[in-house]
Specification:
The protein has a domain at 10-58. The protein contains 5 helices and 6 strands; from the N terminus they run E-H-H-E-E-H-E-H-H-E-E. The chain has helices spanning 26-29, 36-44, 81-90, 104-107, 109-132; strands at 12-13, 49-50, 69-73, 94-98, 136-140, 143-147. The strands form 3 sheets. A two-stranded antiparallel ribbon has the order 1-2. The chain has a two-stranded parallel ribbon with strand order 3-4. Helix 3 (81-90) links the parallel strand 3 (69-73) and strand 4. The longest helix is centred in the last third of the chain and has 24 residues, at 109-132.
Amino acid sequence: MPYPGAPAGDFDTYLKTGPDLPYPGFARCFANGLPASRAAMLAATQRPIAFSAGSAPSGVPGWQTIPSCSLIGTADHVIPPAEQLFMSQRAHARITEINAVHLSLISHPGAVTRVIIAAAQAACIVAAWACTNFRHVTSVGGRWRVAVPARHSSHSPPVMRPGDGALTLSDIGI
């Protein structure tokens, strides 16, 4: 379906609500495990996505420079859990697996909240630890790295050598 202001050839896309083999339909694929009334409501109120969003270049993936967390729903019928695990491991993500469907934000909001809070706390702890101990914190390859000052004499300033004495989150108990 074309949308106002769409570039030539672009259009809105929607997920089919009913089955169309091999697609089992919205309720059995995206909302499996949710009550039928909730699945019907979600299917009816879905927002479209522009067709071009699936093919537009995105630039450097965030997981290459930003520490990542991943919540894998082992009952996901949209993205196979093995694929989610592969992508999470490639991103060096902190992985949490739960028996959840694709819409884990709806089916398991508590688990999603715990992962988000743990990620925020880890980032805050690293920043606070680094500031308190006058360390330099960077993210390299999706992992937090903390450069420790090299030993120095009392008449010379500390020298920061990235990679020399670098610590990871696990080194400081995170």
